[in-house]
Amino acid sequence: MRAWQVTGLGQPRDVLKVVDVARPEPGPGQLVVRVRATAASFPDAMMCRGEHQLRPPLPFTPGLEVCGEVVAIGEGVEGCQKGDRVLGAAVLPFGGLAEYALMQGVATFPAPAVLDDAQAASLLIGYQTGWFGLHRRARIRPGETLLVHAAAGGVGSAAVQLGKAAGARVIGVVGGSAKAAIARTLGADVVVDRREQDFVDVVKAETGGRGADVVYDPVGGETYRRSTKCVAFEGRIVLVGFAGGEIQSATLNHPLLRNYSVVGLHWGLYKTRDPAAVAQCHRELAAMAAAGAVRPLIGETLRNDEVADGLQRIADGGTVGRVVYVP
């Protein structure tokens, strides 16, 4: 089969090469799918550079989020059969930027019929992270104010939709007028173009000085530090990534004196520690998709010769919504 492989660490456009490799075979608890769509992600780009906590041995094929057709099933996998259209998490080194991918049975679910292949591939990590972040970690409540950074990106756009579905008032922060328009179409009640406005001032003005009850931060660095200036009493800042390049660093006297919480979220831990919760989360997301409450935002699709450049644009922060590989 043809696959995009990383043979050395570096920028995606420099290290991703097309190769011919053997199709993977499923082990216990695994299945193989013919890839219909793979949602490329910032973690994929980080793995190319060797900067992610997941460091698969070289060579490997990136692509963590896959929608595919089941072609082989390993021992112990239940709930699916050959020919099923599914979405789920790939098992590296056989990721989804290839003709076939290896997937985890515990993190593979039926693809909702209302979503096309690109949308289905995009319903996994970003939306599960948003659901666990807002509901399990932040315990968001109807009527609260939710501040979402990078609100037009793959992760942030999911949080905007999930926040609205939870009954929150959503303030989305973006960079540029084009992204601001997208955040509005996603349902954000207030949109802040960080190039034109200070989101701290806007949040305080919109909440009568009280601040945001929940802050969803996939950016880190200065964005996190500024967020601590506009989080409400007993507010919660959810750390879900550091796409800005600088890992969040907390000065703990500040939450102590201001009575707010800083909580982390690594969705991958739930796959091993609470797989039943992951399955339940998918059922809720599928129901929301069927009701039209969530719909993954697809910014662009990539064909075979466009993968390396597409992943580079993700690494450089120049994309909107999800970038999806369609073989």
UniProtKB/TrEMBL annotation:
Matching SMART domains: PKS_ER (SM00829)
**InterPro entries, per the entry:** ADH-like_C, ADH-like_N, ER, GroES-like_sf, NAD(P)-bd_dom_sf, Quin_OxRdtase/zeta-crystal_CS, Zn-ADH-like_protein
Describe the location of the Enoyl reductase (ER) domain by residue ranges.
11-325
UniProt-listed PANTHER family: QUINONE OXIDOREDUCTASE-LIKE PROTEIN 2, SHORT-CHAIN DEHYDROGENASE/REDUCTASE
| Protein name (Swiss-Prot/TrEMBL) | NADPH:quinone oxidoreductase family protein
Q: Which organism is it from?
A: Dactylosporangium roseum
